[in-house]
Structures are given as structure tokens and as C-alpha cells.
Design a protein that fits this description.
215 residues; globular; Prepilin_IV_endopep_pep; Prepilin peptidase; membrane; transmembrane helix
């Protein structure tokens, strides 16, 4: 693929991401979120366009791209909501879980193998139960929405490899503590902190220590 063609493809994907980001903003608006909705558009657009060079370089298998596309959309929309109103709507957290599992099933069908689905299920259980336990022990540490979003995030990350799940959870906790220290606030949105390591895991699976994907 020539450089010109690569740029053209990236621009097309950027525009598609912008449009889907607008859909995400509309979903949040229907859920009562009224602030910073426009962030969804450039957020999804940039996240999606960043996948093009990764595919070109061979760091991201083409059959896997549905997972980071869907996961990226979910993470951006939830992060915008969490930053804006400190709330993670059920329609995105729970609905996002269905979208992610669907993307994993598609990736499995296209060439990833059906082991991806078992990895996704295990990841969703591990992260969901882990966050639920933290919520029970320390209710002020995580909100109910954080526990719900752990399901789609765990599914996406678990499809990469169940061993990646503890890394994502630990990194998210570290990022939250860092944000709290930098802002000198005891309450910071955890969604964006979880989104960062989750996105790195699904967009660059070859960098993980698990061998890249569930087997």
C-alpha cells in the first residue's frame, strides 16, 4: 500500500469514526448527558484512524480490527460521559458488552479461532468480579457504572489474552491514583483510566506478554 493510499484510507476511516462518534454523542444525549458531547466525534475518529497504520505495518491482523473498532467507540463514549457528568449509562455499558462480544465472534469467524470467545468470556468474568469485589469492600473506590463497564472491557481484553486482564486492572488503578495526585482530588473518573490500558491492549495485541491472542 502506497503512502498516498494509506493516507486516503486513514481519512476515510477518520470520517467514518467522526460519524459514529456523533452517534455516540446522540446516545449519551438520550441518556441525559448534556456536556462535552462533541468530544465523541474527534475521539472516535482519531482512535479509529490510528488503526490504519497498525494494520499496514502488520501489527494488527485485519480479522481482528472489528474488536478495536467497537471497543474504541465504547471506551470513547463512556469516557466522555464519565468526564462530563461522572456517570456511565447502562445503555452503553451493558449494550457495549453485547457489541464487544459480537465483534469478538466476528473476529473468531474471520480467522482468530473460537478460542477468542472463551477468552472474552473469562476476561469479562475476571474483571467484572474483580471490580465487583472492590465495590463491595470499598464502595467509594468504584461506582456501579465502573463495575458494569468492566464487562465489555474485560471481554475485549480477555480475547487478547486472559493474562492481560490483571495488567489492565492494575494499570487503570495506577492511572487513577496518578490523576488523583495531580488534581489533588479524592474523586476522579475511573472510566478514562481504564480506557487507556484497555485500548492499548486491543489495538496493539502483539505487545502483550500473552502471545497476542487467546488460544
Amino acid at each position: 500500500m502506497s503512502t498516498v493510499l494509506l493516507v486516503c484510507v486513514a481519512m476515510v476511516v477518520f470520517v467514518l469514526g467522526w460519524c459514529c462518534g456523533r452517534v455516540g454523542g446522540a446516545v449519551l444525549a438520550r441518556c441525559g448527558v448534556r456536556t462535552r458531547l462533541w468530544w465523541c466525534r474527534p475521539g472516535v475518529a482519531v482512535v479509529w484512524a490510528s488503526l490504519v497504520p497498525l494494520v499496514r505495518l502488520g501489527a494488527l491482523p485485519l480479522w481482528w480490527t472489528a474488536v478495536p473498532l467497537v471497543t474504541g467507540w465504547v471506551l470513547v463514549v463512556l469516557s466522555v460521559s464519565d468526564i462530563g457528568v461522572r456517570r456511565l449509562p447502562d445503555v452503553v455499558t451493558l449494550g457495549g458488552g453485547g457489541l464487544v462480544f459480537g465483534a469478538v465472534a466476528l473476529a473468531a469467524h474471520l480467522g482468530g479461532g473460537w478460542g477468542l470467545q472463551s477468552g472474552a468470556l473469562l476476561g469479562a468474568v475476571l474483571l467484572g468480579v474483580g471490580y465487583g469485589a472492590v465495590r463491595l469492600v470499598a464502595p467509594h473506590a468504584l461506582g456501579g457504572g465502573d463495575v458494569k463497564v468492566a464487562v465489555p472491557v474485560g471481554a475485549a481484553v480477555g480475547a487478547v489474552g486472559p493474562l492481560v486482564v490483571p495488567w489492565v486492572a492494575t494499570t487503570a488503578a495506577a492511572v487513577s491514583l496518578l490523576l488523583a495526585a495531580l488534581t489533588r482530588s479524592r474523586v476522579v473518573p475511573h472510566g478514562p483510566a481504564l480506557a487507556l490500558p484497555a485500548w492499548l491492549s486491543v489495538s496493539a495485541p502483539v505487545l502483550t506478554d500473552s502471545g497476542g491472542f487467546s488460544a
